[in-house]
Amino acid sequence: MMKNKILSLMKSIPFRVFIIVLTAGIIGIAGVLILKYNINKLSQNYQVIVEEHNENRIYMEQLSQLLYQHRSFVAIHVASKEEKDLAKYEEKEKQVREKMGRIILDFRARMTGNTREQIYHKVYSDYYSYLQSVDVTLDLSREGSTETAVFYLTGQMNDFLQSVNKNLMELEQLTTKEMNHAKLKMDSRIEFSRISTTVCIIMISVTMLICLVYCVTITSHLNQYKENLEQEIEQKNLSIRLHNEKMLSLQDNIIVGMANLIESRDGDTGEHIKRTSFYVNLLACALKERGLYTDLLTDSYIELLTKAAPMHDIGKIIVPDHILQKPGRLTPEEFETIKQHSAAGGRIVREVLGSIEETDYIEIAADMAAYHHEKWNGSGYVEGLSQDDIPLSARIMAIADVFDALVSKRCYKSAMPVEEAFAEIERSTGTHFDPQLVSVFFELKDEIIGYLNS
């Protein structure tokens, strides 16, 4: 009796094992296939989100860069006086406006979802408010109301532009949040898939080696796909960085071009900017090599100092042409008008460039523009600063500016011989110029003469 029960149990074991193994195999294979499908679908969705995010970011960066480029053309239009220059920059302004219009319309089609649409409508509203203020500014510029035009340029136009950028930044933060959420979700599913795959392998490993190989293959492919996806994202980010560098280069060229345009109003061709930038860089590097002002004169500071040098006379935009181009001696009233360009220059740098350039650059450029006519003994203008109260950048610029003015021909004077110019700088040591800076400047005499003769 007992033997029959044992034989009956032994006969039933293979079938039961078969059922258990078959069930485990079906569950394991079905689970792996379902996980594979869900992961592939989630990966595809994640890739779509990443691509959409990067494309949206490119749209936003293009719109932001075009807005600053557009404002630069409006600023140059306000600074221009010749009819041909007005027409030229009106045409450029129109071309940039058309590009922005196409981008913002294309961008609109991509803004689906309540939150995106709400932020986009803020961008859209501020953008058209900005264009309205542009039209007013251009009309004022055409009518010759330069000061009012500058008020609109640095006031309403700048406010609307900052508002557009603020909303664009909010929109980018939203899309970044969406992408991060999708990535977290994908990572969670990937982790879940790994655990589930291990369970499935344990369930069927004793009898179904092929299932084990299949699951390992899926995991391997999944990791490879993730690596490929990360490489693709890195390549796209590299493309965006290169695009940003190109836009920054364009921005720098526009700033220098604006400085050249302002300098050309008093008869200079732009060479004054090149020469003074050379002197500033040469003197700053020499001070650093001699261990002077080492707490301030870092490589980064010298680079920003040289980049900011062209902006030192940007305040001349407020000075009428008949004063700038006057061949004779200025009246006291005319000289008072000229003196205002320093304070105006510092203010314009902060208001016009403050939202598109880094803070350190703005501080250096504003100090150069505002204080390069201050004197060591306190007799300069506009604030009457003296000695170390004058920013180092302005003291360096003062020597470079005066020296180049002496050796250059202007509408009101002839060029002075180089030796006489150095003698004049030496006579002004301790009154106009920082004695320590002049001493180093004279050590560079041969290099300066070689540069002027090249």
Name some characteristics of this structure.
15 helices, 454 residues, mainly alpha
Question: In summary, what is this structure?
Answer:
The chain has 15 helices and no strands. It has helices spanning 2-79, 83-110, 114-143, 146-154, 156-204, 209-263, 271-289, 299-308, 321-324, 332-353, 359-371, 392-407, 418-427, 435-443, 445-453.
Q: Shape, please?
A: elongated
Give the fraction of residues assigned to helices.
over 70%
Rg value: 34 Å
Largest sheet: number of strands, sense, barrel closure? none
Counting helices, strands and paired strands, the structural category is mainly alpha
Poorly predicted runs? 246-251
Helix/strand order = HHHHHHHHHHHHHHH
Percent strand equals: under 5%
| Quaternary structure | single chain
What topology does this entry show?
Blueprint: H1 2-79, H2 83-110, H3 114-143, H4 146-154, H5 156-204, H6 209-263, H7 271-289, H8 299-308, H9 321-324, H10 332-353, H11 359-371, H12 392-407, H13 418-427, H14 435-443, H15 445-453
Helix pairs in contact: 1-2, 1-3, 1-4, 1-5, 1-6, 2-3, 3-4, 3-5, 4-5, 5-6, 7-8, 7-12, 8-11, 10-11, 11-12, 12-13
Structure, explained:
By secondary structure, the chain is mainly α. Helix content is about 80%, strand content about 0%. It is elongated and about 110 Å long. The model is unreliable at about 245-250 (pLDDT under 50).
